[in-house]
Automatic annotation (TrEMBL):
One CC-aspect GO term: plasma membrane
Localization (cell): Cell membrane
Major place of residence: membrane
Record-annotated ABC transmembrane type-1 domain positions: 114-341
Membrane topology: Multi-pass membrane protein
Lineage, opening ranks: Bacteria, Pseudomonadati, Pseudomonadota, Alphaproteobacteria, Hyphomicrobiales
Family the UniProt entry places it in: Belongs to the binding-protein-dependent transport system permease family.
Protein name: ABC transporter permease
Membrane-spanning residues: 20-45, 120-141, 153-176, 218-237, 276-302, 322-345
GO molecular-function terms, A-Z: dipeptide transmembrane transporter activity
Length: 355
């Protein structure tokens, strides 16, 4: 009897291991297919736009034989499928070509400007999460009340108002009129040469070097664009928090907790919100990814030297290598954050592990 039970347990263990391996393979294939789709989209965009990469490098007045030689060096004379294979191979190795605008490798430029975008998006996400979650909880707990209506209107405005209009309005009010924040940019010209960045994340570098005057100046520069992005993040996070909390507050365990005499605050913050926190992690992660890819207009308005402004300037100068390289990096980060949020979801929610 014991031998039969052991064989049964062994079969179950092998079946579980096989299912886990199959799930992992499917997961890897899904990520690889998504990334390949991203490369395909950017490749065909680069071929459809009416910009000749060879002419962008040598100029419109270059002799025809020079243009043709550059086209051969770039592989533009090859069949389209061969160009795509070369494009994929180079993209996987991080080779996006050379920027026409800066004459540097595109990956070198991206490594220089991307920390500024990450820093700005991180500040925006922190503001959005810190304010959006409590507002969403408040709206759910007081459903149908004036507080609920106010929170929903705040979220509706965040979804509806164009970010460039709100950014310009904020600059006029808080910089030009009130003088509460610094002018557009990342750091004052006074500290531009006295401050030495190490990691590329200026706030972290200034704090590590204990340059508190520089840290304060950096804060005055980042707070307005960060708050603007935080407001749009808040609109999404508060709406989803409200939805999750309404679902949790209607569950039977909440009724049972109230019957046991638990305080309403404990039920809301320690039971309902804890269960709603699992899907909220995915929401916050997607919001963060959205700010990373959607900060182009914000960076342009506030002259923030991040990846969004880099892509904008490159597009205006027909620098397609830089535009496509930046697009691939942002898309890859978006895919990575989605993968991370899925992993965290499965780790934190035991119910998903048996699926």
């Amino acid at each position: 009897m014991a031998a039969v039970e052991n064989r049964t347990e062994a079969r179950r263990a092998r079946a579980g291991a096989s299912a886990l391996a199959l799930s992992f393979v499917k997961f890897v294939l899904t990520v690889a297919t998504t990334f390949l789709g991203l490369l395909a989209v950017t490749f065909f965009i680069g071929r459809v736009v009416p910009i000749d990469p060879a002419l962008a490098i040598v100029g419109d007045r270059a002799p025809a034989h020079v243009v043709e030689r550059v086209r051969e060096e770039l592989g533009l004379n090859l069949p389209l499928y061969q160009q795509f294979v070369i494009y994929v191979r180079q993209a996987v190795t991080g080779d996006f070509g050379t920027s026409v605008l800066t004459t540097n490798p595109v990956m070198t430029d991206i490594a220089r400007v991307f920390p500024a975008t990450i820093e700005l998006a991180t500040v925006g996400t922190i503001i959005g999460a810190v304010l959006g979650v409590p507002l969403g909880v408040l709206a759910a707990v007081r459903r149908g009340s004036i507080a609920d209506q106010i929170v929903r209107v705040i979220g509706l405005i965040g979804y509806s108002v164009p970010i460039f209009w709100l950014g310009l309005l904020a600059l006029v009010l808080f910089y030009a009129k009130l003088g509460w924040v610094a002018y557009p940019g990342r750091v004052d010209v006074v500290y531009e040469y006295s401050f030495t960045p190490v990691t590329g994340f200026f706030l972290l570098d200034a704090a590590m070097q204990r340059q508190w005057d520089v840290l304060w100046d950096l804060f005055r520069h980042i707070i307005l664009p960060g708050a603007l992005l935080g407001y749009f993040s808040l609109a999404y996070i508060s709406r989803m928090t409200r939805s999750f909390m309404l679902n949790e507050l209607s569950q039977e365990y909440v009724v049972a907790a109230r019957a046991k005499g638990l305080s309403e605050a404990r039920i809301i913050w320690f039971h309902a919100l804890r269960n709603a926190a699992v899907p909220l992690i995915t929401v916050i992660a997607l919001s963060y990814a959205g700010l990373l890819e959607g900060s182009v207009l914000t960076e342009t308005i506030f002259s923030w030297p991040g990846l969004g402004l880099y892509i904008t300037n490159s597009l205006q100068n027909a620098d397609m290598n830089a535009v496509l390289g930046g697009t691939i990096v942002i898309g890859s980060v978006f895919i990575g954050i989605n993968v991370l949020s899925d992993v965290l979801y499965h780790v934190l929610d035991p119910r998903t592990r048996s699926r």
